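Course assignment 3, question 2. Fill in each field.
Student: A.L.
Task: Predict the tertiary structure for the chain below.
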Amino acid sequence: MTDPAKLAGAFAELTKSDWRELAETGLKGADFERSLVSRTLDDIRVEPVYERAKSAILKSTRAGRPWTIAQRMDHPSCETANKQALIDLENGATGLALVFSGAPTSRGYGLQVANVADIETALAGIQADHIHLRLEGGASGIAVAGLLTALAEKRSYDFSELDWSLGQDPVGTVLGAGFAGNGFAPALTDLGDLTHDLLRRGFSGRICLADGRPWHEAGASEAQELAAILAAALLYLRTLEKAGIDLATAWQTLEIAIAIDPDQFLGLAKLRALNMLLGNIARACGLENSTPVPIHGESDWRSQTRHDPHVNMLRATMATFVAGIGGATSFAILPFTSAAGLADEFSRRVARNTQLVLMEESNLARVTDPLAGSGYGEALSSELAAKAWELFQKIETGGGIIEVLDDGWLQDQVLETAETRASKMAHGKAVLTGTSSFPNLAGTPPVVLDVSPSDKCFSENDIDLPLGGEGERFSALVKALGDGESLTPKIPEFAGSPFTPLPSLRLAEPFEALRQRADSIAEKNQRPLVFLAGLGPVAGFVARANWTENTFATAGIATHLEAGLEDGPNAAAAFRKSSARIACICGPDALYRAQAGDMAAALLDAGATRIFMAGRPGDLTDALEGAGISVFLYGGCDIIAALENVLIDYENA
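Answer field:
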């Protein structure tokens, strides 16, 4: 067999400048930067080719060990949630994420527990001291931590052996509400108080959570999300140190949660950059030899779609791939029907098995940081870390995360980025398959459980508790709950200093709103229909017609293609036979100059209420608009605004 090394040696070694010269030749005069170079929303330059990195340092928290497969427990009924969890644990899950009602991540559902009996029911038959357990309590965070602690006392658990993450995140809890409870100070005092008590019990799990998911859901860029995570983490370290807990111990209470979306390389770079940035914080605190901070990942809410939801499986698979090789210590998948409601057993099974297949069959848990040494991966990670660190420093210069939230400038930056994301979706520069591209109008609604949403949380405020600071308050709460007292159900009320809230957004929502309007029209009469007037031979416009049909379908609008139309009268006769109200001329550019204007006039005479044209009008804009064409549909136009015209005409019919 030929020696590969000798074979490679027969070819000249090319440099990056050699490749660029060849690429520019192939571009035939097109601009290299515009054609082959892109930029992220953090303005990080992404080149078409990179040279091998000069050095490679592994950046992974998990390093070749299996990650924890965390399955959500979010059914309001403790009995049903327990049955689901037992199935999950019996079939491969190695952890549970207890998502409580009222928590930002509950999506309107979540466990409803008021006392220790409820939490016992939810965890019946589950050896909670032998699995990873996560709490997502939101406004109920202290209260549900008290319930779990009381349960651990009742079951005589060894607190030093518990692999629990208690998810205490005052910043994330109020981020979407626009109010800081009674002010951040009491929440931070409670955090210090709870930590003192748990440390005295010997608890060695994680208590504080710096959560990037609210920022991601609001549309933040990768650097904005990372900077906010760092700022929250530093706030909690300072809070615990101020409460009298030494910094090394405070560090051991910290955990990160981060959203992983389907963007493979940016997702990997984000995880690698996060490890680099946490290393910076550790060194600044004199803790460079401390245990790495665990990173919990979750498939992102932002890219979830309600229509054609099975494509969400593919997005979740990519997110799992990124988390797996990127070093996340635990990972949870949002079931593929989450945008439509509470997941049934099949959706939960798919979420669980996606991770099992990638871990056990694809062996991703054995892979450690494959981007190490990649020119692209190292450059993207380093530049992202630098951008995030720069923004983090601005937050610190502004007084820290609380002061910055009060001022509102960070939220303004995030909302501006979210507008850019939405614009990219509207103009087709970013796509969600099944929603903004290749929609399936014949698809059926996803199957979800018939459960009514509720935002109520459970509060300890009606239990008589002392002031806290060094564990007194939380200890009294645990005792009261252990003695049988119950939490009070209530709708969360936030009072205090208002700040600019962050929304929870899905990229698909503008297109789903159009689909909903089209479906409403269809229920009353007929589905909105556009007559596609195929100008000239099919071969001349088939690609454009396919794109146009697909684009109308993203708004739930059906099309009827009449091909081979030669002139206006021919098109008008065909239009009268259709039941459409709107027409779209679709043909090759070469025929538009001579025939599109006459065809538009004929279609208007035939009763069309509005005329579209597929393609850019170029220098014909004035002439075509004068002939009655009001909307031009092409890649790069504002697709949502264009399609709204169809729905408006049908709604006003």
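Instructor remarks: The longest strand covers residues 558-565. The chain has a mean pLDDT of 92.
Grade: pending
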